[in-house]
């Protein structure tokens, strides 16, 4: 493990979650200006992430339970570092389709700020599914 890899170890608090469209560079905050969440990298090679939207209501109806599912993202697994990206072999996730998959994220570390980027992909939340990505910013706890 390199010194650079070790700098990711620890607990990171989510500061912002933006989506960016590739063509227009337009950015939005689909989960509000102050989403909740943490990203934890262990020195043992395990990571965990939990991200939720800013405004959520308790789920006591089917409609509210669906809304809760659509405003959360959580997974854990063993990770490895490869240059400017980390790849997680998911072993438990809020989305069963991710279990057993590898999730690749690009990152930029600047002191106590960690920016994490997904790959460019069709955005299912926008009409026409334009190519976009998520950008998450974290601060070291």
Note down, in words, how this protein is organized.
The structure is a single chain. With 141 residues, this protein is mostly beta strands. The chain has a single domain (3-140), classed as Lipocalin (Beta Barrel), CATH 2.40.128. The chain has helices spanning 3-6, 62-70, and strands spanning 10-21, 27-28, 36-41, 46-52, 72-82, 85-93, 102-110, 113-117, 121-122, 131-140. It has an eight-stranded antiparallel barrel with strand order 1-3-4-5-6-7-8-10. A hairpin with a 4-residue loop joins strand 3 (36-41) and strand 4. The two termini are 22 Å apart.
Sum up the structure in keywords.
single chain, 141 residues, mainly beta, Lipocalin, 8-stranded antiparallel beta barrel, 10 strands
